[in-house]
Amino acid sequence: MNQSIGRTCWAIAEGYIPPYSNGPEPQFISHETVCILNAGVKDAHVEITIYYSDKDPVGPYLVTVPAQRTKHIRFNNLTDPEPIPHDTDFASVITSDVPIVVQHTRLDSRQAENALLSTMAFPGN
């Protein structure tokens, strides 16, 4: 399958990294993840910008997703230009130079009964 699917701009209006976790690391660390599919034949150069309710946006965080590959990026692991704080509401806009598909996932392991949420991001242009 050598086709380009998706969009070049996506938004995730809801983001939150829980302040603590319950269970073995790294599997059960509470986290937010952006899952990116690049089904096209060119590498995707992706920029992630983080928006907060009480301060200016931060970014871009730069990621490359190779052609015909998928990449799962934990927001917890983004550090450049600065780490995303835990226990803080945020949103994100993901842009790419080629069409991609974006999904959002959260693992909340603050309780022994883990909660997992996954949803498609909002497609822009």
UniProtKB/TrEMBL annotation:
<dbReference type="InterPro" id="IPR009794">
    <property type="entry name" value="ASRT"/>
</dbReference>
<dbReference type="InterPro" id="IPR036698">
    <property type="entry name" value="TM1070-like_sf"/>
</dbReference>
<protein>
    <submittedName>
        <fullName>Sensory rhodopsin transducer</fullName>
    </submittedName>
</protein>
<dbReference type="Pfam" id="PF07100">
    <property type="entry name" value="ASRT"/>
</dbReference>
